[in-house]
Amino acid sequence: MVGDSERIVFVSVIHTDLESVKEARRVVREIRPVVVAVELDHDRYHQLMSPPEEGEIAGVESGDMAQDLMQQLAILEKSLGEITGSDVGDEMLAAIEEGRAIGAKIALVDRPMSATVQAMLQVPVDEMYRLTSMLPDATKDIEEGGAGDLLAMLKEDGAVDDLMEQFRSEFPGLSNVLIEQRDQYVAKALHFILNDVEGTIVAVLGAGHIQGVKTALDGLLKD
User: Fold this and answer.
1) In what order do the strands lie in the sheet with 8-13?
2) In a 10 Å sphere around its CB, with 0-12 CB exposed, 13-18 middle and 19+ buried, how is residue 59 labelled?
3) What domain range includes position 43?
């Protein structure tokens, strides 16, 4: 039973999606796992519980390209959340709340934001600049009514995989830092949990991380 990946029930969520919040709650309530693992680190969790002042992002130093990029991402997510009625992280907090209600252990399995930002220093500046410059237009599109279309598109079969592949092609350095490295980190955390506890684990992860984490975890279990 130890180290058996079939003991993990993965919940694929879309940030700022009310349906994802409901799904996270439902799965934890029905499965009653011994551990609820969520795609948060400690800084991010505390940030969700006690939101920082406007313009601040936990774990990010101000005044550099990484800060600008993370700030634009936060603005986009905030705009999307205001339209959908679900803030980024609500699905993770819902899973945590349900987990605590049934006495499950809570595991924050994402890589610390500070480590991710530090890794971004190795990404070519032009990549960060290109993505940063694109985000305001994306935010504007969402504010002008594109939120529903975006969420509907993301829920189509294969849409997330196609989007991730496109992102990897256009922004390979950022993809490595924001996706692949974090997938490896989460997989290692889940691997540790599998070998630490018996029983079922529910892992609530963004849809773009599910396949990468599963692949990385399978590799760890074969070693």
Assistant:
1) 8-13, 201-206, 35-38, 105-108
2) middle
3) 5-222
Residue 146's identity, in one-letter code, is: G
SS3 call for 40: coil
Do 185 and 177 form a contact (C-beta atoms < 8 A)? no
pLDDT tens digits along 131-156: 888 877 777 776 666 556 666 666 77
Looking at the structure of the chain, the number of domains it has is 1
* Residue 82 dihedral angles phi and psi, to the nearest 5°: -65, -30
Whole-Å CA distances, 68 to 48, 65, 132, 188, 205: 20, 5, 7, 29, 25
Distances, alpha carbon 11 to alpha carbons 39, 40, 201, in Å: 11, 14, 11
pTM: 0.86
